[in-house]
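To whoever picks this up:

The parser on our side crashed when reading a file containing two proteins. I've narrowed it down to the boundary between the first structure block and the second sequence. Both blocks are reproduced below exactly, byte for byte. First block:
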Amino acid sequence: MNLTETASIPATWLEVHRATSVPLLIRILRLQESVRPALNGANVLLVAFDPEIRQAPPADMLKRMFALTEAEADVAIGIACGRRVAEIAVDRGVKVETVRSHSKTVFAKTRTRGQAELAALLARLTFFAPHRGVGNGPLNALRD
């Protein structure tokens, strides 16, 4: 473990090194006095982040937030998980051109300008999604 701090700035996160993967990050949040009674007097809240878990928000969340169709939500999730257009097409059993068409519609509906921007947006939304495990498998493993 490495508590990252300097003499003038107290640590707000720490890293837990693992033998075979990238470090687990722990964010340390100091709680205000007013919220401590609700948390049995706790002074800090620890939020863990595992950078190796590829997770996307649930398809139903994307459909509601951005008025995506089921197919568009699947394509968005595939992009967010770093899959190539051809891989998404194979997973869905459709042509690459169909996935490209869906991705253009997804970019318009989410007001993003490409795969990287869409992936960043969905990564921020992932905070609200329940943990469902590592998303390296087929797209259906990531859907509700």
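<<boundary where parser fails>>
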Amino acid sequence: MSKEIDLNSKLFPEIKKIIEEGKQQVAQAINVSLTATYWQIGKRINEDILENKRADYGKEILHALSAKLVNEYGKGFSTRNLANMTCFAEVYPDFQIVAPLMRQLSWTHFKANIKVAEYITKHISKELLAKKLHQFAVTDQKLIENRNSETEFQNNLKGLRYE
């Protein structure tokens, strides 16, 4: 005699929940590792470029390095992405600040913060910029969770400028 399995029992939904939670944990671990890798790449490039203190040299490095990395690892290492990585390490020079944020924010969120930083640097001092970036990083997750429209996002940026 074989017992028929009742798929409506608690077993199937509980197993499904375990699998989904495991998938989320894997995705988060990958994001943390990827973001840490990008920060380290940006820091290393900045060290090399800053040592030579030549903007043209920096552009040449990014183009040449990108060509090699794209060939070996794919388009995720384009010149623009390498530039984002260098900006990331400039905006967040202290890894101890970045590390806890990586568990909450994705690389996409950090790239948005970089754009905010570039915008803000044109309008406010570096000291105020550091303060605002910290505030923005803390509230960024809430903004993303609420799926604010582009207009709301821009209004939030304007609010940062005038405080």
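After patching the parser it read the second block fine. The longest helix spans residues 11-52. The helical segments are 11-52, 55-73, 79-91, 95-102, 107-121, 126-145, 150-162.
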